[in-house]
Amino acid sequence: MSVFIIRRLMQSIAVLFVTAVVVFLGVYAIGDPVEMLISPDASPAERAQVIASLGLDRPMWQQFLTFLWNAVHGDLGRSFVFNRPTISLILERLPATLELTLTALVIALAIGIPLGLISGLKPNSATDEAIMTGSILGFSLPSFWQGMMLIMIFSIWLGWLPSTGRGELGSFLGIQSSFFTLDGLTHLILPAINLSLFKLSLVIRLTRTGVRETMPLDFVKFARAKGISERRIVFVHVLKNILIPLVTVIGMELGSMLAFAVVTETIFAWPGIGKLLIDSIMRLDRPVVVAYLLVIVSLFILINFVVDILYSLIDPRVRLGEQS
Amino acid sequence: MYRKTFYAAMIASTMLASSIASAATLTIGSATEPSSIDPQFSRTGNNQNVAMQIFDRLLETDTTIGIHPALAVSWKNMDPLTWQVKLREGVKFHDGSPLTAEDVIFSLTRAKNIPNSPAPFSGNVAAIASMTAVDPLTIEFKTKKPTPDFIEQVGFVYIVSKKAAENATIEDFNSGKAAIGTGAYKFKSWTPGDNLSLTRNDDFWGKKQDFDNVVIKFISNDASRVAALRSGAVDLIDAVPPGDVKTLSSISGLKVFSIPSARLIYLALDSSRDQSPFVTDKDGKPLAKNPLKDKNVRIALSELINRQLIVDRILDGSGEPAGQLVPPGVAGNEPLIAAPAYAPEDAKKRLAAAGYADGFGITLHTSNDRFPGDAETAQALGQMFARGGLKVNGVVAQPYNVYTKGASAQEFSAFIFSLGNSTPTSATGLRNLLMTNNKEAGTGSFNRVRYSDPTFDQMMQEAMGEFDADKRIALLQQATTYVFQDMPIIPLFWQKVHWAGKATLAYDANMTEDTSATLTKLAK
Predict the structure, then answer these.
(1) Owning domain of residue B285
(2) Chain A partners of B405 at a C-beta cutoff of 8 Å?
(3) Which residues contact A147 (CB under 8 A, 6 or more apart)?
(4) Global pTM?
(5) What is the pLDDT of residue A322?
């Protein structure tokens, strides 16, 4: 296991370095941040002052080496726009996104797995057809439009739920989150649903396929012959076997939800990192874009790592393979 | 008699109760958000919106950028290099300490030393040679050279408290510790990306504000901002998309507040070089001579444009056809210059006179996310030019962040750009946009097409050196008349800007596109 971890670590560092080079070069090739930042009635002297203070008067290789040197020392630079360390900007907004993503994930799993099971156990029934048709909707509705519709229905017509912002934060065990206040929770509902609908459909389909594939297998027949209750067969033996593809896909999707919940965050004015990324790209806040992508790559590496460990917990064969 | 008084008292008390209930909190949905609470960190609009509620300046502007005394009550120049400014008496900072000349001197010194500021106020204080406090409420300024618009320069710098800001970092401002101003509202909290919270400053020197608390929510998406207003989550929104103006004003209980802003949308023409990258002959081959150098061609292009049609069809009416830099109402506007009329016949004659009776080929460039209808406007211009006999080789639309670099690097031949005038006269805009690009002289910093006319430069220097305000404006008008006869850029329209809010509110729609609680009142 430790060999595995060390090898993984080395690979991760290589990936991070390559990302840093590609992203830095890519981002620095686009546009001129001074044009974006400067005031419309600036004088030439002011412009020169800004260029010098942002370090943009130096050649690109010099800027890159400075960036790399600082990055190795744990400093990913300061934002052009906010003049604050990029890492603290990102970490400040990460909780909001985590909160949204986890809620969406819980919704997707809590509704998706049971519906998938029902469909898979009674294929081609009316219920199955209804669930499958519903999931097509979940797949194909564009997130942007879907978000506007949710706002239209639940905020404007019915007036039940708020449509923008994160709401009041409560604190529990030192953690600040909207989970702990009613206002916070009501603000969370619409964006979380919007973000979860696609994943929900995905979970339904994955579960259904898994169940359909597993049910005819010999061990299920054997378990039935042994007289084990149908309930136990489905919820213990079948479910365990279909979890592996589910965990793989969910791991990947969790990463992409964290990184690119941009659309949902923009529509619902949710102060998360996706919105920070889009704003930073528009304003050419290069340090933030680079730091953001590095943080996201690290997150992906971490999530994949956790997924690998989960495999070995769910599937004994993975553990056995490692030992031999 | 008694009964009458009783009724009056009843009505008064119910009115009071209802107005208090609704006046308690004002929630604004704003398209932009500040990058810092430090008012001197950046002078771009998004930061000014916030700064103007917590801090004050020596001057304040009205809806048409006219200047009025704020922290300064009077100013006069003793000789061309000396100015004496009197400060307002009895002004208190949010921490209770009084405003003195020391705070002002400190603020004006600090303005040029903000670390890593992306848009510093250093230009506003560049003219100052020295400052002395004559008494606690009087400051004497010496300038490096005669500066007639001196007060307009220093008057726009936000004044911070020396005590609170002396050793403060940007984090101290963002947390509120150093956000001590003299403004109408006090800082309460800021959650970047989400909201800014303010409370009323009851010791404010100016008019008492109608709201106890103000919450500004940052909603960058247009549709979401409109939805937030319609669902009642916010009371007022800014940057209403032109397409939604009609819908919103037809909803009872809502009201739209509009004004043509001082943001000019124009077509820049590469008129200074002998070869221009995107001008060709009719077959797409390079031309020996750049036709855009010819004044007749530029005027012809302007005459081929039906400005009113663009405003009506593309902008849903949210524009005002323009023929010069600043709109009526802003000092320096020349009322005699109307927006050029649509005159295709005359244009053809001019093109023929210039030797392009068959037209020539041109490619238009534009941004596609900078202001409503930018890409569509370029397409319409393309069609209008084609109808006038030109061969339009293409209309290229790019995202603004990529586009600006190309525009400034002289990579285009004809491109759409905008200039928001935020100063009280047209002088700054004319200087930056049309005077010869010259780093040493500090002129032409946004003169992307490198237009240059020595006579105009001379006229502008004369205008900017004139101490008599009325004469200065007359000189600016003359310079404007002179330069727009040469059509250095083709003015298209001034963008109309809109706010929308509950009908119980009144908002001061303003040309500088400011969104602020200080501009919001309860409707009478």
Answers:
(1) 263-495
(2) 31-32, 35
(3) A190, A191, A194, A263, A264, A267, A268
(4) 0.85
(5) 56
